[in-house]
Amino acid sequence: MTYDPASANPLAANPLKTRSDMQHALQDLFDPLLPYFSKGNARVRLDAAGAHFDRAAADLEGFARPLWGLAPLAAGGGDFRHWQRYADGIANGTDPNHPEFWGWVNNRDQRMVELAAIGFALALIPEKLWDPLNGRARDNLVTYLLHARKFDYADNNWKFFRILVDIALDRLGVNYDRSLTNAYLSELDDFYIADGWYRDGNVRRVDHYIPFAMHFYGLIYSRLVDDDYSKRYRERALAFARDFRHWFAEDGATLPFGRSLTYRFACAGFWSALAFADLEALPWGEIKGLCLRHIRWWADKPMTHRDGVLSIGYGYPNLLMSENYNSAGSPYWAFKAFLPLAVKEDHPFWTSAETPPARPPGTVALPHPGMVTMPCKGDVVALSSGQENRQMRFGSEKYAKFAYSTRYGFSIESDERGFAGAAFDSMLAFSDDGIHYRVRETNQDVRIAGTVLYSKWSPWPDVVVESWLLPAAPWHVRVHRIVTPRPLETAEGGFAIARRDFELDALYALTGAAYAIGEEDFSGIRDLGSTVARQGLAQKAPPNTNLIAAKTLVAQLRATIPAGETVLRCAVLALRDTSAVSSDWEHPPAAPDLAELRAVAEQGVTVSAMNAPGRMP
């Protein structure tokens, strides 16, 4: 009998269409955690892998994160048999004399993150977590929360964490210094760009933290607090919904882009939060469809271990793509998707029939994140001007590739000395020794002109690259002007598609072109008249580098460019259609003249993600 890793997925047999289905899904995802609760119920330790923070904080993460789904379940009247376990865990975790004490919060401590879930649950369902506590346990909990408030929270979405704790303190009748709350609300506003878009702090990046953090917490705030900030958060969510819907494909998949993708279906959290806040940013049938289709997309993915515990990874268990702040409990931020369970069965989110989003056909420019989205036969491709994340692992792959796809995801590299065998999907890589390589990490200039993206970047201080990206669905075109004082080896990749076992794939490496045909997909790249000859390569990428498929193929073009100026032009195509080689592949788009592209770029506006917010130097 062949082992099917997807069969361990607790969502596999669930239709995920109704409120009852979602209640069962939450229970089924939670139940595998039960054997890992500690004796005093304050800690959940799922494996021995480490994160950058201490083990007690990691155990708290495993304990607290399920509350993002369990609290809404209870608020909506759903049954959960283990509330006493959680009440005992909170009492013991905040008791300095108990062996399972979580440890005191210090400056910018991971515990701050997890206390947000506890604060949210205390505010929403005090009868489950506060009322069962005796006087001493309540005093310990309040002391613990007040102590945490004294410290500075990270200058990003973390500021909402103290605000959620403050809402709980308000509802529990605890006195505290509210000036700190007001200060953070004001500082969070400094991250706002326009048209519903934020940055996650004073950084040059715009990613899934905008929907599943900034808007998610803002919409919770708008439900629990009535003030001017609440109104502001609702107005911004209305605007954001119109853009964010373009990140989702027909099958429910969203763009894998940026960090923290191990949170998986937390990416539906924005749509879930609209239901919680009773905010019809799009017709309810569209909101419901965007939310539930996304969760259904995960139902056949081997995203859990054999015991049903969510793994670190994305489409499958994969520590390689993780962040240094991912412990084994981190993936349970995915429970944010269950926020609609807090609203009653007769809410229009649940009573409406699912409908596809009524979005305009064709390409759509999103100037704030610096993207142009293209629907491509069941896929959504986002051309990206490139953002910046030098603080975290694989920041270039997660933020600075030329394109991201709901079907093909993206790959991270596994060997900094592996120029010859690297994936380089949706990237242009350079090497001056044939071993090490450089790719785009950040930009000096980024503009968007209509649906054309322009960026200027330098893999080394003395090498300058200008890149233009143009949609031509289902293709996209790339043009690069490179000025270098020395010869360099180059490699440019298309999309990574899943490989078949037993070497049954069709691989074609040609002069000026390469393509690969897997079991279901076609991927190819064609040169469009570069100033140097390029050789095609159908690259078998290293295993476990792609987020969605563990083994992939990438069509590449490779060449050595001379000192001076070189212009590289290519067209890239990937489709879930193995017959594309005899149809779309035969009709590539043309590359515009470089002078024409320069004129277009000069008319463009700077991408918002590259602009400095109020307090950024």
TrEMBL record:
Residue ranges of every copy of the DUF2264 domain listed in the record: 18-356, 363-593
Record's signal peptide: none
Highest taxon in the source lineage: Bacteria
PANTHER family referenced in this protein's UniProt entry, alphabetically: LINALOOL DEHYDRATASE_ISOMERASE DOMAIN-CONTAINING PROTEIN
Name of the protein: DUF2264 domain-containing protein
